[in-house]
Design a protein that fits this description.
Rossmann fold; three-stranded antiparallel β-sheet; seven-stranded mixed β-sheet; 2 domains; 17% strand
Length: 280
């Protein structure tokens, strides 16, 4: 196939071979599957790297990437990964935490006084901070050992998460009580920062879910929402089995609104609304 008319008028040439090369590298480095309908997205994101290095086309960039994989791979990965998130996204999960699960855990673990939660594919951190805010709203006693692990493949979004600084538009729709308790507005009114009370609860780490996990112990709850849609079914089976290994019996898994475990894992039972409990 030749290049389309759309590609001919673009700033840089991306051939079919270039796209297949990018797709292969993305699969090898991240496990992400880039189907043909992702061509425009791939072009717009990788074009930034072509431009950043002062190169003339995608072929030159791919040659550069192969020759400098140790230094360029991170920027290549960061360019391709999608980071769409917001505070209290998919509210039913947080309602379930607040009204049902956290009260149950507060009673069941009253002697241990320890709570561990993993936000896998955490992006810029809004999910992890929403979990932290919900914990504070429920009112776990101050002597509890509470930690939230937030991991992502993209090192840039993790830096954003650690700072906890977001545009004002990110808090649209949040009620005044939440805003007053958990956010500080900048002097120029353009950004907000998550208060230290929540930032201290969340630990950000870079992690490729398809590589070895330097994680010991188990979590009470794992969030992995709108991440596995980029993986094929075999990869999803492996990933959810690994998640199950890091949950106790009765531990909970939250996945995205467009995802389900049917035909993927028999180790969880559905509680409805993309909420699952480990049964084996």
């Amino acid at each position: 196939m030749g290049e389309s008319a759309e590609e001919e008028v673009r700033e840089f040439l991306m051939t079919d071979d270039d796209f297949r090369h990018i797709s292969r590298l993305a699969g090898e480095l991240t496990g992400i599957v880039l189907a043909d309908h992702k061509r425009s997205m791939v072009y717009s994101r990788i074009a930034r790297r072509v431009r950043a290095h002062g190169l003339n086309n995608f072929r030159e960039y791919l040659d550069y990437l192969e020759a400098h994989l140790d230094t360029e791979a991170t920027d290549f990965i960061n360019s391709l990964t999608t980071n769409l998130t917001s505070f209290f996204r998919e509210k039913h999960h947080f309602n379930f935490l607040r009204e049902t699960l956290f009260p149950q855990l507060r009673f069941a673990k009253k002697d241990e006084k320890k709570l561990r939660i993993w936000s896998a594919g955490s992006s810029t951190g809004q999910e992890a901070y929403s979990i932290a805010a919900t914990i504070r709203q429920v009112g776990f006693p101050s002597d509890w050992d509470v930690k939230i692990l937030a991991t992502d493949l993209d090192s840039n979004v993790l830096d954003t998460g650690r700072r906890g600084v977001y545009p004002m538009s990110s808090i649209d729709g949040l009620d005044d009580a939440v805003l007053k308790r958990f956010f500080m507005q900048s002097k120029d009114g353009r950004t907000v920062q998550v208060k230290e009370e929540l930032r201290n609860m969340v630990h950000f780490k870079r992690l490729n879910l398809l590589e070895a996990w330097p994680i010991t112990g188990t979590f009470d709850i794992i969030f992995c929402r709108n991440v596995v849609i980029y993986f094929n079914k075999d990869t999803q089976k492996v990933l959810f089995d690994r998640f199950a290994n890091h949950l106790p019996l009765g531990g909970h898994l939250m996945i995205g609104h467009s995802e389900n475990l049917q035909g993927i894992s028999t180790r969880f039972e559905s509680l409805g609304q993309t909420i699952y409990r480990k049964v084996k």
